[in-house]
Amino acid sequence: MSAQAGLSHADAQAGATIAKNGTGSVAACMQCHGANGEGQAAAGFPRLAGQNRDYLAKQLADFKAKLRTNPLMQPIASALSTAQMNDVADYYASLPAWKPGPGIASSTAQTTRGAQLAHQGNWDKGMPACFACHGENGAGIAPHFPGIAGQNATYIASQLKDWQTGARLNDPQGLMKAVADKLSAADISAVSAYLENPK
Ligand code: HEC
Ligand code: HEC
Q1: Which residues bind heme c 1 (predicted)?
Q2: Which of 8, 13, 50, 109 is deepest in the core (most CB within 10 A)?
């Protein structure tokens, strides 16, 4: 996930205030998304830090328009104005992105499978590599393709399952639905675990 160039400092400052204090009607984002936007892995709350600002703003607009549904995020996004959404998107995009480390130390059948799906895809089923769209090492390609590297496995797995069931359908041209439909349950576990700490 890479921070975007050209952010307005004033907008990111206004976004920081919302993230830390909330607004009159909205809870502070950091209650769920972590003090530095790192997310809460145990709860499956997503990392937002360093994500591309256009993707973040689109998700907030989609929650507000009920194109993406979630009982926790929907009321929050609905209470934000477009300007406030842009401000918090600027703020989270300006925070440090996840940095690749040495990767998972031990190589198991599951990590091998996860790495294969991320880097090569599954051509038996016509599924391209995750990183073909999500960029080198999953860092994302703004504006349309979010960073997925360093995201918590619980959240990634929940999104992939939501695409399979149709609970999440806000992806442009159904690109992610087509991918998720080609993943087995074991593949979802493998690729989600791999993406938490990929090389
Ligand atoms: C009560 C907990 C909670 C609070 C407070 C909260 N969020 Fe969320 N947020 C979530 C959950 C849970 C999800 C994942 C929703 C899903 O699974 O679709 C989420 C998802 C998101 C996403 C989509 C991330 C992605 O990678 O697609 C964005 C953007 C977001 N939140 C921004 C915010 C902002 C900005 C605020 C503060 C104004 C905020 N959230 C406050 C729980 C919360
Ligand atoms: C053909 C292009 C394409 C491929 C291949 C692809 N994705 Fe995506 N993915 C997208 C797009 C576009 C989005 C943004 C959807 C949106 O705007 O809501 C996305 C979003 C996601 C998200 C949601 C991120 C978030 O923060 O909520 C996850 C998780 C994800 N992809 C995982 C994967 C995995 C895992 C693979 C490989 C198994 C993969 N993707 C392959 C295009 C692709």
Answers
A1: 29, 32-33, 73
A2: 50
